[in-house]
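Weekly structure sync - notes
Attendees: PM, LS, DV (DV joined late)
Agenda: review two folding runs queued last week.

Item 1: First target. Sequence and structure tokens pasted below for the record.
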Amino acid sequence: MDREVGKINRYLMIGWLLIVAVLSVTYMGEFFKGHRDAAYMTMFLSVTLIPAVACLVYFLKKPESKELRYFAVAGYLMMYTFVLLNTNTIMTYGYIIPMLSLIVLYHSPKLVLIMGGVSLGANIACVIRFFRIGMVTRDDIKDVEIQLGMIMFCFVFAYIASRLYRKIVMENEEHIGSIDDKQKQLERVTLQTITTIANIIDAKDEYTKGHSYRVAEYSSALARELGYSKEQVANVKYIGLLHDIGKIGIPDSILNKPGKLTDSEYAIMRRHAEIGGHILEGNNMIDGMNAGAKYHHERYDGRGYPLGLKGEEIPEMARIIGIADAYDAMTSNRVYRKRLTDEKVISEIRRCSGAQFDPAIAEVFIGMIESGRLEGISPDTVPGEGGKSMAEQSAELLRSVIGFKEKPYDNEHDYLTGVLSRNAGEALISKALSEKDGGLFIVDITNLLGVNEKHGIVSGDRVLMEAADVLSERDDLTVVRYDGSVFLCFAPGEEDREAMDRMMSDICQKLSAKLRVMNEYEDNHICIGGALSCEAGRDLPGLLIAADKALFHVKQLETDGSYLYTKPDKAGTNNRYGIDLEQLVKMFSDGSEEAVYGMDSPEFRRIYETVKGIYEKSKQEMQLLLITVTPALGKTPAISDRDEAMEYLQSAIDVTVSPSMITFRFSSVQWMVIVTEPQTESAEVVTERILNCFYKSYDKKNMALTAEAAQLPKFV
């Protein structure tokens, strides 16, 4: 908007000075011809040149000033009035045309009204004077009336047009102002959101608290020194805040290891640059958003990672963040050393100039260190807008948006919900089980991904925090954030089935009531599956499998609910999964899943009717194959690893089994295959094909397969 005003002012001054120049030359010519005396010329030049020169000086100082319009009109009015009252001709109304052009240019109704009144009054005074001296007679009255009428006509229509235009302009300016306010508000929220993400990143690494903020400040200060525009400097700050976002994908055990990393651990740590690049890839909010995250560990000599870029192949944004990142590492205290002195830091940057750092950027940065222009950035906090640190702004955002409550942030607690982390929780529950029995149940909030996609990650986080609050209300429970939207709850000493059932049902109802009032919580279910160690065993992996089986069958019903694992009547075979095979055979014998789990699955009913129809048609006995995904020896994989392995198993089954066979997912970790023509392909042959296909595609070593076969009963 200011640029448009400046452009109008420039054209206004050019036009006005051109008119003054033409009039001055014309009147000077009349003076030299003897038609004007010296007093008249002095007065004319004073009222003509002085206002014009004064406005020109004002324009040069403030070219985008909105007040210049009023000074210009006042100056032109002085010249116009002088000529009108001191001329010997009635044709001075011709001066009105450029003045009208001048005042219409600004679309000011008030200005048009004032100038119209002054002009009409001056012209009437001029006509009266001409009547008195005899220059105008009654025979000229018709022409005088026409001239005065034209003046009124011009100003009246200029006033109407200005009013209409002014209304449109003001409405447009209000609209633009509203958009600008919303844009600024969006920018503030964007900065705070990015700052929140940076908080989460730094919370994972206890040795680099505040690192992202300091790097952002150092980087933006360096960009400003390099001549970046205000907008570009802001972008550098945003990108600097997210340069370590890839650390989200690095295990805490590696990030927080106090000693030297092994070669394999260092290889994993190096992946944070590549992970960060993938996370931010395709984000169009800021041009080159992923450059800082992906390339800030590239070296000028080409010996960096992840791509080994060299020289100016590395984006300048990454070269700036790279040196800021190194500077913060050298000037921050570590467990193994204190911060380096400025002299040592400058010496190190000079030594690495041309190798690790861009020489030109390094020289500018050294100048900033030597002049003390980086001293305002504290190792403990980074100042933000409005006198508050970015960390404080981030905390305010969390409190206002998701009702943030202070929670312990350490290795034993989940950073978001404050409940126990998975590693700490498993260790605590295993220790408790070694001493006495207890009840364990899994709480799964389904379709949390849908909440994140529809309402944003902050809304999904809010759902998890609310759920954690409900679970933590009970003093008799150990609550663990197990995996994604899954919580693990352990009740030490619990052995009573009815009490355990009531507890799970009560928690399910409270969670459902709490989350249903949230707008973000749509098309989701609270599914709870539990097991008692006195029935399923006191080793945590076995207890988890039992609870997971119960959870799977609750999830099949696609509604809120809870179910407690029921121990089969028979002890089963020596194989720990033989019980499941017996249960499956029993289900086909009784014709209902309800015989085992107390609930009926429409999918199993369809499978049962199909198998029964095949038998009645062919009278051919069929074989039942049950394949289970189990943790590999000595491994404790996450639920996400189990689910991934199940996807690979499903693919192996789809590829290897013939169309005549029937497949069915029996539980969260098991697939069932019914061999309908065992005389053609036995269960052993089918099993071998499935296992070979699975292990060829699934290259991780944390999950394994167990396969068992049985003869299906005859359908009577």
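Item 2: Second target, run right after the first with the same settings.
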Amino acid sequence: MLETGSEPVAAEAAAHAERITEVRRQVALLKTGALQNAILTSANFSIIATDEKGIIQLFNVGAERMLGYQAADVVNKISPSDIHDPHEVTARAQALSVELATTISPGFEALAFKASRGIEDSYELTYVRKDGSRFPAIVSITALRDDYGDVIGYLLIGADNSVRKQVELELQKAMAVAEKANLAKSDFLSSMSHELRTPLSAILGFAQFIESGSPAPTVAQKRSVDQILQAGWYLLDLINEILDLALIESGKLSLSLEPISLAVVMHECRAMIEPQAQKRGISVAFPQLSVPYFVRADRTRVKQVLINLLSNAIKYNKAGGTVVVECVERAAGSIRICVRDTGAGLAPEQLAQLFQPFNRLGQEANAEEGTGIGLVVSKRLIELMGGVIGVESTVGEGSVFWVELKLTTEPQPLPVASPPIAVVPVRAPADPHLHTLLYVEDNPANLMLVEDLVARRPDIRLLTARDGIQGIAIARTDMPDVVLMDINLPGISGIRALRILAEDPVTARIPVIALSANAMPRDIEKGLEAGFFRYLTKPIKVNEFMATLDVALEFAKTEQAPARKENDPCR
């Protein structure tokens, strides 16, 4: 049985659905049109559209506001390149010609070349307003294509870049001022270091001369000399700490990060600190390390930090107290070095102020000398080496200062009969006398390696020095054929030592080879600019090392012989 009226109902429902769809389509079109109109009438962006030949076809309200033209002034009349700086358009054409190995004509072709190949291009340029004034802009250019993929025009969307450019200019000026101030600060520090150390060297030198003189000083003189020496060494420490802090804060401090043995560092710290502890009746215990721990750090700076912590633990301990050094391996491949004392301890409010420069936490009235800088410098140094420093303390019981450093692998010892060593050419000495090599280095492991290498050369005698000043003294007295110089040395740097040698007529002709862990290209460039004969980096490449020695020795033979003949006192 058929249901009457069902077909008209279905048709009406379909028609209603079609009407709803059409309404929605019209709403969407209106919305799209509103959006398009809002974009085209936006005053914040310039929107310029051209035909395929580059002639402007659309010039929106934002373009009118930015450039001062009315749409009628430019549509169907000019190209966007006509409102750009012509020198920039030409430069862009030349750059594109080089980049793409083809000829690009100045004008709109230079602006639209990449866009026509489907590459959206964004660049900075200078717009020229109708009144001739100029302003920087950022423009994005896109090719417009029809359904067949053919280019039918180009769309350029631009934004005024004046504010950002002004901010960049101000920032550049501020950076230039800051850099100039930094350079002035570095020059000042270098000058002050020299000016302060020169008279201090005389004070300490003559005081020690009197102290060790013959006849021995009287009791009263000895008491006076002791006061001079005590004050002089303290002043030297103060100068060093202030300079260190200033260098760290200015970012000028150079570190030589390499694997160092904690056992060796502990042994050296013990030798340096025990006389101070014995003088005050303080017992100091160092750990017996069953595992050969190595950390990646600057050996001199690690010693400086540990000596500072140990010295504080002794100075601020109780009479007959103890100091215990412990090493505890931590998770994540690090090791904690703890310095535990039995002093008065620190209150929470003191702990909060502990790492503030020149803050001695109320110890100013104490008989112990101090600057309040040592812990600040120690904290900065440990952090620069990728470590952490901290403290735990209980009033009346004592304090534990600790540093954590990352563990690393032990430097591989040189095999006795490895293939690289076996092929090292051993040149017979050209002269009957030995060649002399001076190695200036503060790292015992590096010294040991070079000693082992040179032991394979019966024609070379090795001299060693632990710092630049000692190296200069040995060079002047022993006149080595070649000097091997580390860069980051205690006291003065290897570069400074090189300059001193080069400025002395006696040592000026000695070739100086840099051997450093500073292996960045700029470090090598700076070293060669400073005047090093060659610049070798660590780890040592044995063949390169030996070959460089041979070249330097040959150079020394030809360069130094005339000078030594001229300076021969028997001539």
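Discussion on item 2: Residues 1-39 form one domain.
Action: LS to circulate a short write-up before next sync.
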